[in-house]
Known about the structure:
With about 110 residues, this protein is mainly α. It has helices spanning about 1-15, 25-35, 35-40, 45-55, 70-80, 95-105. It has a single domain (about 25-105), classed as Cytochrome Bc1 Complex, Chain D, domain 2 (Orthogonal Bundle), CATH 1.10.760.10.
Amino acid sequence: MRPILLGALLIYISGTGICLAEGEMPGKRIFADKCSHCHAPGYEQPGTRQLGMTRGEEKAVLEQRKDLTADYIRYIVRHGINAMPAFVPTDVSPQQLDELIRYLVK
Length: 106
């Protein structure tokens, strides 16, 4: 009985957007939802491939970079670059963008 209740609770909480994993940042979930289809690790991802070819392999995977600044991320997300479209506030809210920046800036 307890495993069923725990499973139901986890499903409910995850649907509300509450992060359950210790240390998990909301920005990680936003990255997974909004960015990973192009910027996840792996050369089959178009954003990762493009960054590897134009900026070098050490800058290909966004989640591993240490050189990203908040201003740069905010500008690129809002204005786009090359094949990456701009994300307007209805696509990525200001709060989501702040969380994404907190996640990516190390």
